[in-house]
Amino acid sequence: MQILSLNEVSKKIQQKDILKNISFAVNEGEILGLLGPNGAGKTTLMQIISGLMLPSSGKVRILGTDAVQYRQKVKNLIGFVMQDNNMEREFTVKEALLSYAKLYKVKEAKFAVEKMIERFGMRKWQNRRIDRLSGGMARKAMIARALLAEPKLLLLDEPSVGLDPDVRLDIWREIEKLRCQGIGIIITTHYMEEAERLCDRIAILKEGKLMAVDTAVNLKHIMAKDNSEDLTLEKVFLRFIGREAF
Ligand SMILES: Nc1ncnc2c1ncn2[C@@H]1O[C@H](COP(=O)(O)OP(=O)(O)OP(=O)(O)O)[C@@H](O)[C@H]1O
């Protein structure tokens, strides 16, 4: 089942084409990695999918419903974890989760928050203020918050940037569990290791254009000069964006 489909999505900002005719789908239980150099349009695309920004043209559908026309209907189906910590700084972790659960009309909000605190190992610091959290704690709290409304599509904008390797592993394991629950996930990342370990398919953006979307194995085949060339994903990526060092 398709959780998300994008059909010819474009975005113009101040006469500049930021995204050009992007089409792809994300299926139930699939993790799609969105790769691209700085300024390629990854964050803009995530904002459009999340409904925070309108496309200039094209269709965004969540479980078949037009996400632009029926924004309210699809709002709870999407969880968005941004790059920056956008939780209320003076709230405690528990308060931040509870206020979000109420805003999104989560049933049995208190119980749902308790479950999430347990699941993400946040019990010891549940009463710590958001502005006193380490980067890893904040990222976990943001993912937990996004999952409270039980979204079908989770958008993670650079989920492991700046994190210790052990916290990064924790987050990867959580993401893999979500895939098993059938959630569709899009991750933007600059880490090839993360893309290769987690993602079922990889989409490559360059200057707002979708250069490819396929499995890492197929992308390697496409870009290999001959059958004997054994490419890393990094090399494949650099070839797609025309930046391979010779
Ligand atoms: N509000 C805006 N006004 C003008 N230009 C914008 C705006 N938002 C984004 N852009 C431009 O759109 C392009 C894509 O930006 P975007 O942040 O989506 O790229 P990105 O792939 O997420 O980059 P990064 O990897 O650095 O996060 C950039 O050239 C950026 O300058």
Q: What do the pLDDT scores average to?
A: 94
Element pattern in H and E:
EEEHEEHEHHHEHEHEEHH
DSSP helix fraction: 25-40%
**Poorly predicted ranges (pLDDT <50, ≥5 residues)?**
none
Biggest sheet descriptor: 6 strands, mixed
Category by helix and strand content: alpha/beta
Strand order of the largest sheet: 6-7-8-3-9-10
C-alpha end-to-end distance: 42 Å
| Bound ligands, named by name, code or SMILES | adenosine-5'-triphosphate
Describe the structure.
Belongs to the ABC transporter superfamily. Residues 4-232 form the ABC transporter domain. GO terms for molecular function: ATP binding; ATP hydrolysis activity. The chain has 246 residues and is an alpha/beta fold. Among the domains are: 85-150, no CATH class; 151-191, no CATH class; 200-230, no CATH class. It has helices at 42-50, 71-75, 93-103, 109-119, 135-147, 165-180, 192-198, 216-223, 233-240, and strands spanning 2-13, 16-27, 31-35, 57-62, 65-66, 78-81, 153-157, 184-188, 201-206, 209-214. The strands form two sheets. A six-stranded mixed beta sheet has the order 6-7-8-3-9-10, sandwiched between helices. Helix 3 crosses helix 4 (109-119) and helix 4 packs across helix 5 (135-147). The chain is globular. The model has no long low-confidence stretch (mean pLDDT 94). The structure holds adenosine-5'-triphosphate. Adenosine-5'-triphosphate (ATP) is lined by residues 13-14, 18, 36, 38-44. Adenosine-5'-triphosphate is lined by residues 13-14, 18, 36, 38-44.
